[in-house]
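User: What would this chain look like folded?
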Amino acid sequence: LDEVLKKTVAKNIANGVQKEPEIKNYEELKAQGPAISSAYNNGGRSAAQNIGNAAMDAALLYNLTGDTAAADYAVECLMQFAEWEWKDPNAPTSFEVNDLGYYEAITYSAIAYDWIYNYMTQEQREKIAGMIRGRVDARFRKLMDSLKRNPYESHTWSYCSYFGMGIIALLHDQPGTLEMYDEWFGVYNSNF
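Assistant: Here's the prediction, encoded as structure tokens.
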């Protein structure tokens, strides 16, 4: 695993950090047909997966080996990811364009954030935590209310686990996260 991970991270570093996909008018793309809008939709999710996986791989390698080049790359990925537009409903990683890309951004960022936490500066932590928390806050109330009304809605449950990763990663970093965790865990745990 160590050698495979080292090669993967070295390749990712050589390729640079995934750039944010271009924002296009999603409604216009949908009007052009499902193949066009689907390609945009999937492109945003793929970009989120690429940068998220690159950050997690590098953060994991740093934890296993102490490789500071990997740590620097993980931080660079997360800092770049924190700059991506997600509030604009046309943005490729917005909830409106691709719900899974939106939630995977939370999950991947939260995992890498946790694994590289001690390496980052306070300013870096605040910026990355702000992106994770912003994405969680934007959908949290709607998600919790939906699950309380319809606890058997399977699609919403997948969102819940994505949210949980973000909430847990920020438990001691963001005011109010413990209260969010208590509500989230109460709803999540009630189904087991």
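The chain is about 75% helix and 0% strand. If you want, I can go into more detail on any region.
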